[in-house]
């Protein structure tokens, strides 16, 4: 939070906001619900603009601002960026602009990863891999670790299209993982929330001794600690969750049933928009090409 800021939504019953570009963040929501059973959640999937991993940093920051503006207006007491791309490219830039705490995936995952191994691989979207955010966080946690980051742009569309068991998915995964297998990594971080869905495929390709790290568990512990420090933990009722998307709620409803095992209504939301000069998009896009 900004220094001296007054927290606007201090009710313990207020929801925790969770957002991602699509279904990937459901892996984080599932863990949050498991470990924080009395909390309520507001989940947003920016399905109209996925995948984020091929976007420019300026676009991603604009999208995240729009989501955070809406979540703050909805009264969220804390927001989890259940999106590694947003965590890498927008978290630090925007953290000071909001009174509600913002928690990303990268720092919590890095702290756990360095306790498990010294040769750490990261599979991520192109934007996250190019940002080197995981490399920086891992070396801050332990300067002696070796890090390999691989951009995997085809993974998110394959998960969103529910093609996990498609033979092409195995071929794509083998190509992406080959440098990590050659490097003999002992720990692999799922650097995108969509990727835990690919665990059956990834486990076929990696040695059984490789530690597979889903940041969802680490970020949930961070959320729990933050709520306790702020006195915002809620303990008196069962968890509720509201799902919202920016496009095709019917399709997302099917994804909830597939990935979370229950049916839920999904609201279509039109986010408040922020304008950004197109020239700004172009200049930043050139910087990450």
Automatic annotation (TrEMBL):
Pathway: Cell wall biogenesis; peptidoglycan biosynthesis. InterPro entries: Asp/Glu/hydantoin_racemase, Asp/Glu_race, Asp/Glu_racemase_AS_1, Asp/Glu_racemase_AS_2, Glu_race. It is an enzyme of class 5 (isomerase). SUPFAM superfamilies: Aspartate/glutamate racemase. It catalyses: L-glutamate = D-glutamate. The active site is at 83 (proton donor/acceptor), 192 (proton donor/acceptor). This is Glutamate racemase. Gene3D superfamilies: 3.40.50.1860. Keywords: Cell shape, Cell wall biogenesis/degradation, Isomerase, Peptidoglycan synthesis. Substrate binds at residues 20-21, 52-53, 84-85, 193-194. The lineage of its organism: Bacteria, Bacillati, Cyanobacteriota, Cyanophyceae, Synechococcales. PANTHER family: GLUTAMATE RACEMASE. Belongs to the aspartate/glutamate racemases family. GO terms for biological process: cell wall organization; peptidoglycan biosynthetic process; regulation of cell shape. Provides the (R)-glutamate required for cell wall biosynthesis. It comes from Synechococcus elongatus (strain ATCC 33912 / PCC 7942 / FACHB-805). GO terms for molecular function: glutamate racemase activity. Its EC number is 5.1.1.3.
């Amino acid at each position: 939070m900004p220094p001296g800021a007054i927290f606007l939504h201090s009710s313990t019953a207020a929801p925790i906001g969770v957002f991602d570009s699509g279904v990937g963040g459901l892996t984080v929501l599932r863990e949050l619900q498991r470990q924080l059973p009395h909390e309520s959640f507001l989940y947003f999937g920016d399905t109209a603009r996925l995948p984020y991993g091929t976007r420019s940093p300026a676009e991603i920051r604009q999208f995240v601002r729009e989501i955070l503006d809406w979540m703050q207006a909805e009264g969220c007491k804390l927001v989890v960026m259940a999106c590694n791309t947003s965590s890498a490219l927008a978290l630090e830039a925007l953290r000071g602009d909001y009174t509600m705490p913002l928690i990303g995936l990268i720092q919590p995952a890095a702290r756990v990863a360095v306790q498990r191994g010294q040769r750490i691989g990261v599979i991520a979207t192109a934007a996250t891999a190019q940002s080197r955010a995981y490399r920086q966080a891992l070396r801050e946690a332990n300067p002696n670790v070796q890090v390999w980051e691989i951009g995997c742009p085809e993974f998110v569309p394959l998960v969103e299209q529910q093609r996990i068991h498609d033979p092409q998915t195995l071929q794509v995964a083998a190509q992406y993982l080959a440098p990590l297998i050659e490097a003999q990594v002992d720990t692999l971080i799922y650097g995108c929330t969509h990727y835990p869905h690919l665990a059956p495929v990834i486990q076929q390709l990696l040695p059984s001794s490789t530690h597979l790290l889903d940041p969802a568990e680490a970020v949930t512990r961070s959320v729990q600690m933050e709520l306790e420090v702020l006195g915002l933990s809620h303990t008196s009722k069962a968890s509720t969750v509201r799902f919202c998307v920016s496009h095709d709620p019917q399709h997302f409803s099917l994804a909830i049933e597939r990935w979370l095992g229950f049916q839920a209504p999904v609201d279509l939301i039109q986010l408040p928009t922020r304008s950004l000069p197109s020239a700004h998009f172009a200049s930043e896009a050139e910087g990450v090409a």
